[in-house]
Amino acid sequence: MSQPGQPPKFFADRSLGRIAVPNLLRAAGWDLITLAEHYGVPADEQVADTEWIEETAKLGWIVLMKDKRIRYRRAEIDAVIEYRARCFVITRGDLASAVYADRFLANQQAIFRAAADPGPSIYAVHADCLESLYPSRLN
Question: What residue stretches are annotated with the VapC45 PIN like domain (predicted)?
């Protein structure tokens, strides 16, 4: 868990890939671990979303993911709520890796501020802003 005043520790879901997006965020100074690094390859492909949401929330890590159908995944939303996870999701599935990284970086200050608040929370990361999906829009 990150200490007060320090940048948060981020966890990149498999949906963002193992190399390009994580490397671009690390190059910008983000403290980040990928699902593959945490669980190992090929075990990373078998870990249920609800399992890694629980574990990362308990570790105090902030989740980064890509999921255009997040609104419809009740088990994952319930896990976010139960374990008080803090998640930032890009809801477009048709962008290049560099664009995904650019979206996170363009919203870095807002993400870091929102990540400092206790969960549960889910924010959609748009090109130039964050949109709160939970609490409110997913209830």
Answer: 8-91
